[in-house]
Each structure stands twice: as structure tokens, then as C-alpha cells.
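Sequence in, structure out.
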Amino acid sequence: MAAKVKVDQIETVDGTGNITLNNSITMASSKTLPAASLTGTVPTASLGSGTASSSVFLRGDGSWQTAGSTSASDLTSGTLPMARLSGTLPALDGSALTNLPGGGKILQVKYVQDTTNATWATSTWTATNCTVAITPATGSKILGIWTQQWLSSNSYPCGVGAKLFRGGTEIGGGDYDYDMQVHQGTSRHRGSWMTLDTTPGGDGSTAITYTVKVASQSGRSVTLNNGGKSQLTLFEIGA
């Protein structure tokens, strides 16, 4: 049978200093030692398994573990709460986005409006003020939409045509050269068309200029806008 000693206090002979224990003490079951009675530092090896250092933490299972990164660049999953975002987010370059599902997304829109009255009397394709520069990414397509208002300066209607050009290359427009009949006198003709440039040849850094050009049947006199406006809008459609 193990020996038992029951005491209320243990002191040194003169009542000062510390008592040195040469062997470890095992606490009886259900007995506790008040934390207030402890002084000094508990050795880290006594707190948990593994090796303690400034880069690890004591996990709930009693082991020293490496803490996870707090750098946003190391995030690989999960959702970042909106409360963590502050300030102004940087602009995104649509051409630099990867792993997007499929193509056909509108990456940018450019447009110009023209309200200047301009009169033509020529059957040669002539540039209007509707000209727009756009810098598409590699593989993108350009959709052009043009709306206009015409007035014939003749005593009878005449045909006029409008086409979209990329530089000096005709992209398209009406079904044939003079696809609109413009009324004479004070009657105005309003119309619109769209055309798709499937091979603009963009590289993500070079601007490409698109221009609407017009011509009239037999060189008859017609006026563009005539108190109204015309507009060219370009849509970049991702590959």
C-alpha cells in the first residue's frame, strides 16, 4: 500500500524560500491545482505534442501546428466577405480574363454621335463624321450599328447607301449600294443597319478605326442629319 501524508501546509524550516521536489507529483483523480498558485512559465513541451516556435500555434487537439497564411494571394477556395473589401478596386482588363465560360461576351462599347448637317452629291463612297476607334483583343469580333436621318434635296426621291469601313476595307452595311429611298422636300428618312466584322485583326494594343461612308444614286444631292442626328456604335464581342 502506498504511504499517505495528509497536511494543510508545507513550509521550509524558517518559513521562507521554496520547497524543492526531487520527483514529479501526480495529482489525484478529480483534484485540481489553482492557476493562481502557479508561478513561472510552463515548458512548451508540456503543453502539447510537436515542436513549439514563433510560427506555430497550439491546436485544440493538443498539438503544435503551422498557422495558415493570411495573404490574399494564397487564397485557393472559399468566398471573401464584402466587409473585407475597402477602397476602390482596380480596373479589370477584359482581354486578360481567363477561364470564362464560352465566348460572345461584350467586352467594351464605343460610340459617336453626329448632329452636323452634311450634304453630298456624289456616287463615290465618302466618309461621314461617324468614325470610332476601338482596341479589340485577339480573336474578338466587332458589331457595328448605325442610325441616321436623311433628306433629299431633289424634287423626287433618290437612293442613298451607307457602309461601314475598317480603314479602307469595306465591312458591310445595306444589302446593296443604294439600299434606302430618301424622300424629297421636308420629309425625312430614318433608318438603321448593323454589320459584323468577324476578322478585325485586333491584338489588344492597337487601335482600329471604323468609319461610316455614304454615297447617293447618280450623284444626286442628299443631306445627312438635317436637324436630326446619326450615331455609330461599336461592340467588341469576345472570342
